[in-house]
């Protein structure tokens, strides 16, 4: 473990790509290669004597199993007494520095950490930070190649609902308001949304690896040019966007910022009050959370550049779905909900008839149903099919080696979704298989009670997910129960199944979990749960569309419309934990599901649909 300058004391290894993506292609799974931990969130820290793996509450049980026997210490981030990665590094670096009587050398690949995180590491007085070290180089000899799948255009009238020139115009207006003449986009979902393009570089996320540089008059897309067809190139040129090879980006950035590149500095916004640069200088708008530390170092080291940090304008624009997207989402959730209903019927009847069913056969069944939907492209994430104690792991994945049989007397949790041209779906249902205990019914009923309370909220504009999260947690908190994750996340449109800036969370962590105020058009999941290690896991998840409810002297009131159309399992409801309002909410939703799906099911399926949507009395 060496940097080019000094022997290293600490090595930071992430599982991230060069664009801060939540999920990544196989080429970037470096942390998984070194640790064996397969979760989507986690950071590995290596010293000469010890190794630590930091991950959050979604993965504690999974990480404990996957790290068994490795000697790697599991650091349960967010729990009492566990330092953050940066604070832990600071502590270790101080110890090493005191022993060596000189700074500790910390190495990592600066392309795989955010600008803000890299700044924090580099600012430690006890650390010499080297961000040009690739830990996989010369060690991961059979490393897969980086994906470069074919890029295609998302039909602007039928699916996207807005032309590229309109999107670029809105982004440029935000640049103008910030006093900037150029803007760098590094987040892959924002790039795909802005250009109405999709691909398959990341499994279950229809994006492509790229950078996008935006000026007043033109834009430049940096990506693997071998996957650009003539049709796509002409489409982009029509909107003033040229294509260059991905490997040219870093050199381009160095040149264009100091005025020596092909695109010279402009005075397009020289009359803007906030623009402080003169001719020959650039004022760059960029999001420090979405660019890598390597890119940030280039920006900060170019003389004469004025950087303006802020959220990518596309991030908020993308979160607010337009009328075409909303219409498509409303329709596709009906087709998707039919798949969930048919899965529910299949599993319950198979177990009742003592037919063999496993976690994998359940996942295969619902995946097969979705693939029959005409505009299906791929899953929105690998289906989670977890029986009994396995469901206590929030992101459990069944495999050939770990594939539980499904039997009466417990519950099955299925979290699944699809990527369709009409949008992205994400739904979770927990099913009772035979008779289950009162404790399970209580936990399920309280979970459902909270989910329905949140979906029925009416609130003033200006509220965020911090304001509303407690509605879902309150029934569980009253019983001193909690779940170690947010209550919900934004959902993209044929993009990432997890999308900001909207979310439901109860706890604010500065610099980590800022979320935007809710606006009409935003889609957010509503998914409280209960997870008891070694026993069971419960989650109930619907997607909610934010809509306007009323405007009066007090302001603009907003509400939610449930997009998801899938039955609640009445076999898990214990009426003793519900009041009249709870019962009315559940019955109203079940009626909506029945009336929406009944005209679309086969005659032999109708009795089951009636049974699963029966009223609580």
Give me some keywords for this one:
617 residues, Creatine Amidinohydrolase, Chain A, domain 1, Creatine Amidinohydrolase, 3 domains, 6-stranded mixed β-sheet
The helix tally amounts to: 17
Name the CATH superfamily assignment of the largest domain: Creatinase/methionine aminopeptidase superfamily
Query: Helicity, in percent?
Result: 25-40%
- What oligomeric state do these chains adopt? single chain
Order of strands in the sheet with most strands: 4-3-2-1-5-6
Q: Could you say which structural class the secondary elements and strand pairing correspond to?
A: alpha+beta
* CATH class assignment of the largest domain: Alpha Beta
For the largest beta-sheet, the strand count, sense and barrel status come to:
6 strands, mixed
Beta percentage is: 15-25%
Instruction: Provide the CATH architecture of the largest domain.
Output: Alpha-Beta Complex
Model description:
α4 (115-122) crosses α10, α12 (323-352) packs antiparallel against α13 and α14 (438-455) packs antiparallel against α15. The protein folds into 3 domains: 10-130, Creatinase/prolidase N-terminal domain (Creatine Amidinohydrolase, Chain A, domain 1); 152-318, Creatine Amidinohydrolase, Chain A, domain 1, CATH 3.40.350; 320-612, Creatinase/methionine aminopeptidase superfamily (Creatine Amidinohydrolase). The protein is an alpha+beta fold and 617 residues long. Helix content is 32%, strand content 21%. Strands 4-3-2-1-5-6 form a 6-stranded mixed sheet. The chain has a 6-stranded mixed sheet with strand order 12-11-10-8-13-14. Strands 21-28-27-24 form a 4-stranded antiparallel sheet. The model is unreliable at 260-279 (pLDDT under 50).
């Amino acid at each position: 473990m060496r940097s080019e300058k000094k022997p290293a004391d600490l090595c930071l290894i992430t599982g991230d790509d060069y664009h801060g993506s939540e999920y990544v292609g196989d080429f970037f799974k470096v942390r998984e290669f070194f640790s064996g931990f397969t979760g989507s969130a986690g950071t590995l820290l290596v010293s000469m004597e010890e190794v630590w793996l930091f991950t959050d509450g979604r993965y504690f049980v999974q990480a404990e199993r996957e790290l068994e026997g490795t000697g790697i210490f599991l650091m349960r981030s967010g729990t009492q007494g566990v330092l953050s990665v940066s604070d832990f590094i600071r502590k270790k670096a101080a110890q090493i520095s005191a022993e060596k009587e000189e700074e500790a050398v910390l190495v990592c690949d600066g392309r795989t950490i955010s600008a803000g995180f890299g700044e924090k590491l580099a600012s430690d007085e006890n650390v010499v930070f080297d961000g040009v070290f690739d830990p996989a180089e010369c060690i991961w000899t059979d490393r897969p190649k980086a994906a470069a799948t074919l890029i295609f255009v998302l039909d602007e009238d039928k699916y996207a609902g807005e032309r590229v020139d309109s999107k670029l115009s809105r982004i440029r207006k935000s640049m103008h308001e910030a006093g900037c003449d150029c803007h760098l986009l590094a987040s892959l979902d924002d790039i795909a949304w802005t250009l109405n393009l999709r691909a398959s570089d990341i499994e279950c996320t229809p994006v492509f690896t790229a950078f996008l540089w935006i000026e007043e008059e033109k834009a430049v897309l940096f990506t693997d040019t071998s996957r650009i067809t003539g049709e796509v190139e002409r489409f982009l040129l029509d909107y003033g966007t040229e294509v260059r090879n991905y490997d040219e980006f870093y050199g381009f950035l160095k040149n264009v910022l100091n005025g020596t590149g092909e695109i010279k500095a402009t005075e397009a916004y020289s009359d803007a009050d906030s623009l402080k640069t003169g001719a020959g200088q650039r004022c760059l708008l960029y999001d420090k959370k979405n660019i890598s530390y390597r890119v940030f170092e280039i920006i900060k080291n170019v003389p004469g550049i004025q950087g303006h940090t802020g959220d990518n304008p596309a991030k908020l624009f993308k979160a607010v779905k337009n009328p075409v997207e909303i219409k498509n989402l409303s329709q596709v959730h009906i087709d998707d909900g039919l798949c969930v209903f048919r899965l529910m019927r299949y599993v319950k009847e198979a177990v009742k008839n003592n037919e063999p069913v496993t976690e994998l056969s359940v996942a295969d069944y619902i995946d097969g149903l979705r693939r029959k939907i005409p505009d299906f492209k791929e899953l929105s994430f690998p289906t989670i099919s977890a029986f009994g104690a396995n469901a206590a792991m929030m992101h459990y994945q069944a495999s050939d080696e770990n594939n539980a049989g499904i039997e009466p007397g417990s519950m099955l949790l299925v979290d699944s979704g699809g990527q369709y041209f009409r949008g992205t779906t994400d739904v979770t249902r927990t099913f009772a298989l035979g008779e289950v205990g009162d404790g399970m019914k209580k936990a399920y009923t309280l979970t459902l009670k909270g989910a329905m309370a949140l979906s029925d909220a009416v609130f003033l504009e200006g509220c965020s997910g911090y304001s509303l999260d407690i509605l879902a947690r309150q029934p569980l908190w009253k019983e001193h129960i909690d779940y170690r994750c947010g209550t919900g996340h934004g959902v993209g449109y044929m993009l990432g199944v997890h999308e900001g800036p909207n979310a439901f969370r109860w706890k604010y962590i500065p610099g980590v979990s800022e979320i935007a105020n809710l606006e009409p058009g935003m889609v957010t999941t509503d998914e409280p749960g209960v997870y008891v290690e070694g026993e069971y896991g419960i989650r109930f998840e619907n997607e909610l569309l934010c809509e306007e409810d009323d405007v009066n002297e007090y302001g603009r009131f907003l509400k939610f419309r449930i997009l998801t159309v899938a039955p609640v399992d009445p076999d898990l409801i214990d009426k003793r934990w519900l009041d009249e309002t709870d019962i009315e909410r559940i019955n109203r939703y079940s009626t909506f599901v029945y009336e929406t799906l009944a005209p679309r099911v086969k005659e032999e399926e109708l009795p089951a649909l009636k049974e699963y949507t029966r009223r609580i009395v």
